[in-house]
Amino acid sequence: MKLLELYILRRIFQMFLVALLPVLTIIWTIQVLGRINLVTDTGQSMGSFIQLATFILPTIIPVVLPFALVIGITQTLTAMNNDSELPVIDAAGASRGIIYRPVLVLAFVLSVFSFLVANFVEPPSRVAARQMVAAAYADLFSSVIEEKTFRSIEEGLYVEISERHSGRVLKGLFVVDYRDPNFDLIYYAREGLIDEGGASLTMRDGEVHRKTPDGRVSIIKFASYAFDLSAMSQSSGEMTFNAGDRSLAFLWNPDQSDPNVQRSPGNYRSELHARLTEWTFPFVFALIALAVAGDSRSHRERRLHPMVTALILAFALRWIGFSAKNAVRQDEIYIPLMYLIPIVSGLGFTYLLATHRRIVLPKPVSRVVNNLVRKAQSRFESSGPASGGAA
After folding, report:
1. How many domains does the chain have?
2. Whole-number Cα distances in Å, 365 to 199, 303, 343, 348, 361
3. pLDDT 10s digits, 159-180
4. What range defines the domain where residue 196 resides?
5. In a 3-state reduction of DSSP, which class is residue 169?
6. CA angle 222, 201, 185 (to 5 degrees)
7. 93 located within any domain
8. How would DSSP label each residue in 289-350?
9. Which of the four pLDDT bands, split at 50, 70 and 90, describes residue 391?
């Protein structure tokens, strides 16, 4: 790679990190704070909380990474154009490949990285996080909750234990579950046992009262009843795996005897094809950024900032991808659409780059966005500290 290409690559990568890290940190913090009750309610150590936060991180990276790349590319190329670097490159007779190559190399590397994270890092991280939650709730039942005291596990779920014995044996279990708006559940059992893995609570010799909104009550007596501690919901007593928790190999050939696969095969179908297509978005988004900001333009030309244009197009394409994924969940006839979206859009933006065509938003859209940006800027400036003083 030539010296100029390395220079462009370094600047884009630095701006990519500047865009990625703050956004990733904000979203990660929001996700982590949503699970702070794992520490406050279950008595877990801060080390366990940090470990759980680490497991959450791989689920965010594939979503944020493509948009950070768009920001890095458009901001860098716009700055180079404003500093007359792009016009000088054109005036020197250099090919556009000097600008395109470092961008596409970085986009390809990030696409492969996104594929590896989404298929080989994120699924085991999800499973590990669910296992930690299961173990935390197992500890909550077996050691944290005080005897003869009602304890709120989460909103709408309350537990009371009469006695706690060795071997994770609980006596006099009383569980109230108001989380489902369609019915209220009240469990009573003479005895409960938490399994060694901490994945389930088995209640024995009890009954469950089910009350519907119209006031009807049904009572079911049971000899044994299982509670999934990882999801705090009724379960068969085993760890419940969702489609996002499964490996690529399992999604490719799912076990048809699995209850979750039988219950919602569309989720596994859409997850498989999303894993095989969504990793291409960093590369497609890089083509969008190049088509919007990859050419030199006069400073006198009024236009919407290239980063705004590129982000609007990227968000629109990502929304179409999500819509296609939801459609595949309902009917497999839409599967080709998930592959056509990155292929057609990639070829379209490649054609624009090859023919040196400029891509701009329609004037009405650009005018509306410009007005919104100006209003946001004026509000930001008016909310700042007042300048000046008395004459």
Report:
1. 1
2. 53, 12, 26, 21, 6
3. 888 887 776 778 888 888 887 7
4. 144-242
5. strand
6. 55
7. no
8. HHHHHSS---TT-----HHHHHHHHHHHHHHHHHHHHHHHHH-GGGHHHHHHHHHHHHHHHH
9. very low
Cα–Cα separations (whole angstroms), residue 293 to 66, 103, 286, 316? 16, 12, 10, 18
- What's the pLDDT at 212? 86
φ/ψ (deg, to 5) at 364? -60, -40
Residue type, 203: M
Distance between CA atoms of residues 230 and 127, nearest Å: 10
Beta pairing partners, 220 = 208
Question: What is 368-387 written as a DSSP string?
Answer: HHHHHHHHHHHHHHHTSPPP
d(CA 181, CA 283): 44
Q: CA-CA distance, 137 to 134, in Å (whole number)?
A: 5
Residue 22 within any structural domain of the chain: no
In the numeric block, which tokens belong to residue 347? Answer: 């070829």
Question: Using CA of residue 224, residue 228, residue 233, residue 235, what is the dihedral sign?
Answer: negative
198 domain residue, yes or no: yes
Structure-block tokens of residue 327: 């459609």
